[in-house]
Structure formats: structure tokens, C-alpha cells
Amino acid sequence: MFKFRKNKEQHYPPEVVTDLDDLMRFEYLVQGGNILPAHPVYSLLAGRHASKLRGRGLDFEEVRQYVAGDDIRNIDWKVTARTGSTHSKVFNEEKERPTFIVVDQSATMFFGSQRFVKSVTAAHAAALSAFYTLKRGDRSGGLVFNEEGYDYISPKRSKSLVQHFLQCIVERNKKLPLRKTVEANTELLNRMLQRTRSSITHDYVVTVISDFFAIDAETKMNLRNLSYHNDVILVHVFDPMDAALPDGKLLLSDGRKQIEWKNSRHNWGKKYGDDFIQSRNRLQEEFRHYKIPMVFLSTAFPVEEQVTRLYG
Fold it and tell me: Which residues contact 54 (CB under 8 A, 6 or more apart)?
């Protein structure tokens, strides 16, 4: 007599493992218009730095003296009357702004100490970006990766394409609880950035969502190279325990070695917090030089609340 064991899939809270319904709700949040502003979010994310690229439509640039062949409909009659010579308005035709979203779903992203794990916060940020792009009428696509490989979704102006992109995130996200080891893999992110650069042309908004747990000089070079002909935005996902460890006696391990940690011992707690702040500030300042803004999202709060506070 044969006994069949039912293959029951393990279910996790949505804060630990996301699903498609959880990500699709961002479509309604974006359509409601209460999260992001009506004007392009990348201009806000760039802060004091003007975007190197433009949105779609016509953008007024300057008034200059009339040249034979200019469209008479663009004559600025006020300036012409004031100066006594004919002047024309000059417009720049703006370009399409497709978005390419790079989403890190590697093993180091499966960590959270309060509400969400980093991988879910990253998934929420990706969904928000994809639906915002779709709402403004531009193409959206991206690349989702982990240690096993990646999914490439060619940018299109399609809700079904966005849904497919989010499903790829879900499939990689639900594999994270099955991980046996967690190791920083700097080369993985570098390969994905190189793949991104070979996949897109120019005039994209490239959003890279990761905890940037282990980056090196090559990572920074890849991001700089991407930014030469595109607007690059870095979404840094962090957990409160990245910035400060709780008081008390802790046992910390990397799977091979372990130490007993206490914040008060040798001022370890303060040094740990200072190191996080200094590293983040150095990174932010370095990328600001290349007009690459960084947005910081905590796992302790919902993404939509944080974005509303930032830009609302």
C-alpha cells in the first residue's frame, strides 16, 4: 500500500515573503495620487542636481534673436516690442523617460529585525516605481536577480508586462527562506550592472534597489558608467539593526565563527553606529559628485509611508 504525502507549501507573513496581490496593490496606491507628486519624481530624487535628461513634451529653453527660417508662431512679441528687434522663443523637445529597475533578491536581502525583511521592502519599492512609470505613460522593465540567476524584462508600456515583472520578483523572493547560507557576493551585483548597461541604450531612469551590502571600486565604476547617458537612482534598503545593535549580551555568528557582543564593551555600540553613518555619508557624497542620488528606505516602515514623507 502506497502512502502519498501532500506537498504543502510553507506560508509566510507578507512582511517576510511577498506575493503578487501584495505588489499589485501599489497600482491603486499610485492611481490614487496620494503617494507621489504629479511632477516627475526623478527631478525630486536628484535634489539640488538637475536631471541630465528630460521628460516628454516641449520645454521652453530661451529667447533669442529671430533667424530666417524660424517658425513665426514662436516669435516673442513682448521681447520684440521692448527691444525693437524680432526675437523667437526656443523650445527643446523632451524625450521619453523609460524606467529600468534592477531589483536585488539575493541572500543578504533576507533580513529584517522589526517589520519587513529587506527583500520585501525592495519588492515594494520596485512595484511603486513600475506603476508610477506606467501612470506617466512611459515604458517600464527591469532585471531581478539572486545567486541562481536573473530575469530580464524588456521595458514596455504595458500593465501585463509590469505584472510579469512583479511575478518574477515574487518567484525569486519566495526562494529566500530556503537559503542555507548567506554570503556577501560583490561580483553578483557587478555582473548585473554590466548586464543592465548592455541591455539599455540611453535616456533611461535606472533605479537600482539593494542593500549595497558589499560594493567595491568596480561597483562604483559600473554605476558611473551607467550614469553618463542615463539618470541613475540608488534605493538603499537598510534595517535598523544595520545602524544600531540592541543593548544586552548578544551572540553573533557568520555561520563559521562567533563572538559575544556587548555594546558597552570597549565602546563597541557607538563605534558600530558611527561606522554605519560614516559609510553611508561617504557613499552618498561620492555618488552626489556624479549626480547619482541615493534614497534610503527602512525595513521598519511601509515603503508608501516613507515615500509620502519624502515627497509628499
Answer: 92, 94, 95, 97
